[in-house]
Amino acid sequence: MAGCASSNVKRSQGFKVEVVEAEGVAPLSANLGQARQNAVNDAQKRAVESVVGVYVSAASLVSKAQLLEDNITSQTEGYIQDYKIIKERKDNDFYRVNIKAWVKSDDLSKKISEMDVNPKKYGNPLMSFWINEKVDSQAENENIAELGLMKSFVDAGFVVSDQKPQEYYASQSAVLNDNPDNLQKLKADIVVIGDANSTFNTDQGLGGLVSYRANMSFKILMTATKEIITTKSDVASGIDINKPASAKKALQNVERKNGQRPS
């Protein structure tokens, strides 16, 4: 199937487009055709997100994430003029599709302008992170996913607070339900809370290697209002020579997938 075209939309020269490449991923299921379509949809969404990033600063991508999701990235059909599948394959528990997409950048620019998502208005928010990590149901103290996610925001220009939400709260649920004054004591504009879990998958048929599967989900919220800006979740696999190395690689891979948005 690799390299086959998959679009009924005809490209025209009537308006400006950006040509980008993007990869989409979806979990494999009994319905291979549906998994393939889900991966194509994910690739289209990522293509649109990459063009949105040309017009919107990293700070605004976070502070206006839900607004952008509701009005743009969840409506890819309106902004993908055409696409072509350039590669597709099964990858352990996932189906991956790489596409070349023709994204209507004029339409995106106009929509972003109408939404008044102006990068100059938001600056660089101060952020604080709390990702609970487990390997095979046991607490993981290396904070692999948290540190990686934090780095992706730092690389995008954000400033990270040296204070931690767990210094003020006994649990993550309390961050949303307890006294809001505690959040403001963090001296952080935005708090990221979530979980990352890596579990043994298999060691059969891998030539002596070991496979782990990790899932990661988190919320991004404003400290002043506790408004949830956006939520995100993803899954990824990791293969290495032993269980600890495989578990770590799976956490690294799922963090990299989740950390793509602010880059």
Question: Main traits of this protein?
Answer:
263 residues; alpha+beta
Entry summary:
This protein has helices at 32-55, 58-63, 65-73, 105-115, 144-155, 172-177, 180-185, 243-258, and strands spanning 18-27, 80-91, 94-103, 126-135, 138-139, 159-160, 190-202, 210-222, 228-240. With 263 residues, it is of the alpha+beta class. Strands 4, 5, 6, 7, 8 and 9 form a 6-stranded mixed β-sheet that branches. Strands 1-3-2 form a 3-stranded antiparallel β-sheet.
Class by SSE composition: alpha+beta
Assembly of the depicted chains? single chain
Strand count: 9
Strand fraction band?
Answer: 25-35%
What is the percent of helical residues? 25-40%
Q: Work out the helix count.
A: 8
Main beta sheet: strand number and arrangement?
6 strands, mixed
Radius of gyration: 20 Å
Q: Summarize model confidence as the mean pLDDT.
A: 81
Low-pLDDT residue intervals, each spanning 5 or more residues: 1-13
Distance between the termini: 31 Å
3D shape: flat
Order of helices and strands: EHHHEEHEEHEHHEEEH
Explain the overall architecture.
With 263 residues, this protein is α+β, with helices and mostly antiparallel strands. The protein is 34% helix and 32% strand. The protein contains 8 helices and 9 strands. The chain has helices at residues 32-55, 58-63, 65-73, 105-115, 144-155, 172-177, 180-185, 243-258; strands at residues 18-27, 80-91, 94-103, 126-135, 138-139, 159-160, 190-202, 210-222, 228-240. The strands form 2 sheets. Strands 4, 5, 6, 7, 8 and 9 form a 6-stranded mixed sheet that branches. Strands 1-3-2 form a 3-stranded antiparallel sheet. The model is unreliable at 1-13 (pLDDT under 50).
